[in-house]
Design goal:
164 residues, Arp2/3 complex 21 kDa subunit ARPC3, mainly alpha
């Protein structure tokens, strides 16, 4: 049993790899950057359900944990993005009920990631940068409001065509 058609899987894997590389190399250079991976994983959950969202989140989180610089305990990314994918799948029923829903779901997803990252930093005894974490949540909410509807429609159309 596959979670989605093979062609769509290839597109999602490609986007995940590009997102992980951006998150590990380019985005750390900016003081505040939206969480592109959270928006991508939420879109998988919204378009394919909680199981596919959780699987995509787990895969993206593992990739992110393994890409240098790493800085977090191994597994923090996998756990956080697994929960984000699950959140996207759970919200799939009602996300179109309001124009604010994509922004709220993206903000909740980014908040989950940031809280788990802060807990990981606290476990290591590092400082807790709450201000930047709130900025990342706000930027991710804005990005999600702009991109989520398009990403979900695109993924559903590709899945309906059975290739991608």
């Amino acid at each position: 049993m596959t979670l989605w058609p093979p062609g769509l899987r290839a597109w999602r894997i490609g986007f995940a790899l590009v997102g992980v590389l951006l998150a590990g190399t380019v985005l750390p250079r900016f003081p505040l950057a939206p969480d592109l991976l959270a928006v991508l994983v939420v879109s998988v959950g919204l378009s394919a359900g909680p199981v596919a969202g959780a699987a995509a989140g787990l895969a993206v989180g593992w990739l992110l944990d393994l890409v240098p610089p790493g800085g977090q305990p191994l597994g923090v990314g996998a756990l956080s993005y697994l929960l984000v994918g699950l959140l996207g799948g759970v919200c799939a029923r009602w996300w179109r009920t309001s124009m604010l829903a994509p922004a709220l779901i993206s903000a909740a997803a980014a908040a989950v990631v940031q809280v788990i990252r802060l807990l990981g930093r606290a476990a290591l005894g590092a400082s807790l940068p709450i201000g930047p974490a709130l900025g990342i949540v706000a930027l991710t909410a804005l990005l999600g409001a702009l991109l989520l509807p398009t990403l979900v429609v695109w993924q559903r159309r590709l899945a309906a065509r059975r290739w991608a």
